[in-house]
Specification:
Length: 285
Amino acid sequence: MRPLQSLKRSAGFSLVEVMVALVIGMVVIAAVLATYLGSSQAGREQAAYAELNENAQLAFDILTRDLLMAGYVWPTGLGSTGKLVRPVLDRPIFGCDQGFISVTQSTPTCSTAPGKPALRVIYQADLVNTVPTSDGEPSDCLGNGINAAGGTALADNRYYLKEKVDGSGRFELYCAAYATGSGASGGQPLVDNVAEMHIHYGQAATANPGSVVRYVSASDLHTENDWSLVVNVRICLLMRSNEPVLSGDGMLSYRDCASNPQTSTDRHVRRAYATTVTLRNRMAL
């Protein structure tokens, strides 16, 4: 017979020891899994916010570039006071709160049906303030060449939001262009996931065209004189993430372009971005 000491050394774990080991192992695995899932969720949310920032920056770059050029024309000479003399473009900036009836009209008119705002910008295009085409022509917002009519190439760009056709409920920032002599170019998407666009126009006083006295919507500008007093444009874009990534209830809240608190019911990340662009060719010098 083996000694009693040898029998004790060869004995296995007891049931209690096995159960304790299993419980400890499960706690460790659960902690690791929770950490992994938490970091993965945080990573998805951070990626979504980075996507919003990138899309908003791209949209503002496009809109700002055109607004800074609104009303620009080549000078024709020097006036008696030594200032450059420039022809005046007829309504180089125009907008509609409900959108245009048609973006392909030579002169867009405002829609009365519910819709999202639209903006039209006109300026003289050349090979410096636009990207030249392979044929050596100035281009519109879609990259199409602009044929000079009467020696003047006018960029006539119309920006608006349009819902995607895939039924996802997502909107995109579109641009359509019109060229005298060749007609309109069909609208094409520029930036994805722009949920809302709000536009307000900074209007100057008649006596001091360089000072903004109020910000109004397009429906408050009724006459040509009203539009001629617009010296800057304030744009707010509400961006939306491509995928639903939010999980915690505390992260579902956001503020819209009017700074009102809202809740994301579809768990998509939303964030409002705003900028104000001065119309350089409208400011008093």
